[in-house]
From TrEMBL:
Domain of life the protein comes from: Eukaryota
Protein name: U3 small nucleolar RNA-associated protein 18
Species of origin: Paragonimus heterotremus
Gene3D superfamilies: YVTN repeat-like/Quinoprotein amine dehydrogenase
A biological process term (GO) from this entry: rRNA processing
InterPro entries per record: Utp18 (IPR045161), WD40/YVTN_repeat-like_dom_sf (IPR015943), WD40_repeat_dom_sf (IPR036322)
Localization of this protein: Nucleus, Nucleolus
Keyword RNA-binding attributed: no
């Protein structure tokens, strides 16, 4: 039978006390802290005064006030009583006040002087009816808030102008009549058309009918109508220009040419 020997009852670990050294360190640090506090207390709290004073370095104690034009109460007093203006104001304040009054003048008929004009990109007016050819005419009808586009592919389209949808109201194709110009009449219910022919046409928006005017007297096949213009002063008269620098006046009520002039 085997017997295991008993180990000695002595502890495997030995406790080491460092209390004495810690106390000695704390005692050593206390005098140093006292000396440091004594040195800081000995420094005077007052600032050292300069040997001389330079006038350029002196900062005035008065606060810088904004121009008088920014003072709402002063602006109201000046508007009611011009004698309340401070005569001792500086030239800069007078210039700011004077220019601000000019820019704030609401009754001015002129726009403020500026080198830039603000523009905003809007939707295309004819995005619901894109023409296959080049646009030859664009005209706005203020009576019905609508616009037209005429194209070289013989198409005429009308759009409702609202800046959002610009919906297509109506379109029309004029066969063998490539449009060169189109204008609303002052009443807004008819459109005068030219299309590289020796005659013009009138399109009625209410009935959708097309009226073809007869060629003017003495015209040749080479003389073509390319431009038209309708004035508000004479709503029934249209001015038609040709490729030979000739201008004809036509009566829209009977579609008849009654006068001509050469430019």
């Amino acid at each position: 039978m085997l017997r295991f020997g008993r180990q000695s009852e002595t502890a495997e670990f030995q406790l080491v006390t460092v209390g004495g050294s810690a106390q000695s360190k704390s005692l050593k640090t206390k005098p140093a802290a006292k000396r440091k506090a004594a040195t800081t207390k000995s420094i005077p709290s007052e600032h050292v005064k300069p040997a001389w004073v330079d006038e350029d370095d002196v900062v005035p104690n008065d606060l810088i006030r904004p121009p008088g034009v920014l003072d709402v109460n002063m602006f109201i007093r000046e508007a009611k009583d011009p004698s309340a203006v401070d005569l001792g104001a500086s030239d800069d304040e007078y210039i700011v006040n004077h220019n601000s009054k000019i820019l704030r003048e609401e009754k001015s008929e002129y726009l403020p002087v500026s080198k830039t004009i603000d523009l905003r990109r809007m939707f295309d007016a004819n995005r619901e009816r894109i023409s296959m050819g080049v646009l030859t005419a664009v005209h706005f009808n203020p009576a019905f808030h609508m616009s037209l586009t005429a194209s070289a592919d013989s198409t005429l389209a009308f759009f409702k102008v609202d800046g959002k949808e610009n919906a297509l109201l109506r379109d029309r194709v004029f066969e063998k009549f490539p449009l060169t110009s189109a204008k609303f009449t002052p009443s807004g219910d008819r459109v005068v058309l030219t299309g590289n022919r020796n005659s013009f046409r009138i399109y009625d928006l209410q009935t959708g009918e097309e009226t073809r005017a007869s060629p003017f007297i003495g015209a040749t096949r080479e003389e073509l109508l390319v431009k038209c213009q309708v004035t508000e002063g004479q709503p029934n008269i249209a001015a038609l220009g040709t490729n030979s620098r000739q201008i004809y006046l036509a009566d829209l009520r009977v579609s008849f040419f009654y006068s001509s002039a050469h430019v």
